[in-house]
Amino acid sequence: AGCQARAGLSVMSLMMRKLSTKTLMDLVLKATAANAHMNRDALVKDSLRPGMFFHSGEQQIQLLRDSNPVEALPEYHGPILFINGSKDHHDSDARWLAACPNANCELEIIEGADHFFTHDDRFMHHFIDRRPLL
């Protein structure tokens, strides 16, 4: 992971240890309310389904720290599409592309999107339109 991702995981870990489940969910909902295009229901379901806010957050963060998807990429020989928002961090983009095992690898930067673009109604068409290619 890039420097910014590692820093983000450290902040998330600290928040998981220091804040209550209710406070964490309130922060998620507040962030959702700040973006009128954010699909609140999808974000809440995606946060709750894996148990991120129910005492398993620290284990999930550790899994993210321990995993190294860049090392696993050479084992995959199908098409790869990396998608990143223009308002998100880009310190690992070149590393991801360099690790691709074949020429069928692409990075798409979605203009105006941030880290939570997958829950933003303005950008859903990027996934629907590209799905047949994946």
Structural overview:
It contains seven helices and two strands; from the N terminus they run H-H-H-H-H-E-H-E-H. The chain has helices at 3-18, 21-34, 40-48, 57-66, 69-72, 93-98, 124-130, and strands at residues 80-85, 105-110. It has a two-stranded parallel ribbon. Helix 1 (3-18) runs antiparallel to helix 4 (57-66).
Please outline the helices and strands:
Elements lengths: L2 H16 L2 H14 L5 H9 L8 H10 L2 H4 L7 E6 L7 H6 L6 E6 L13 H7 L4
Parallel strand pairs: 1-2
Main beta sheet = 2 strands, parallel
Percent helix among the residues?
40-55%
What is the string of helix and strand elements?
HHHHHEHEH
**Largest sheet: spatial strand order:** 1-2
Query: Using DSSP, what is the number of strands?
Result: 2
- Give the overall form: globular
Overall average pLDDT? 79
Oligomeric organization of the protein chains = single chain
Coarse structural class: mainly alpha
Number of helices: 7
Give unreliable regions as ranges.
none
Report how far the terminal alpha carbons are from each other: 24 Å
Rg for CA atoms: 16 Å
Which band does the percent of strand residues land in?
5-15%
Structure characteristics:
7 helices, 9% strand, single chain, 134 residues, mainly alpha, two-stranded parallel sheet, 49% helix
